[in-house]
Amino acid sequence: VSEVKKTNTIQNKKENGFITDSEIMMITEP
């Protein structure tokens, strides 16, 4: 559940233009 919530938060930040390189790496990892 926490993993999904984290992804949703990253997606929201990405849509709003607030996202760090580490978060991009984290979301693109398999």
Notes on the protein architecture:
This protein has one domain. It is built from 2 helices and no strands. The two termini are 17 Å apart. The mean pLDDT is 73. It has 30 residues and is mostly helical. The chain is flat.
- Measured between the Cα atoms of the first and last residue, the distance is 17 Å
Strand percentage lies at under 5%
> What number of structural domains do the residues give?
1
Count of DSSP helices?
A: 2
Gyration radius over CA: 9 Å
Helical proportion, percent range: over 70%
Averaged pLDDT? 73
Strand runs, count = 0
Low-confidence stretches: none
Main sheet record: none
Shape: flat
SSE order, one letter for each helix or strand: HH
Structural class: mainly alpha
Using brief descriptors, characterize the structure shown.
30 residues, mainly alpha, flat
Can you lay out the helices and strands and say which pair or pack?
Elements (H helix, E strand, L loop, with lengths): L1 H15 L4 H8 L2
Summarize the model shown.
The chain is mostly helical.
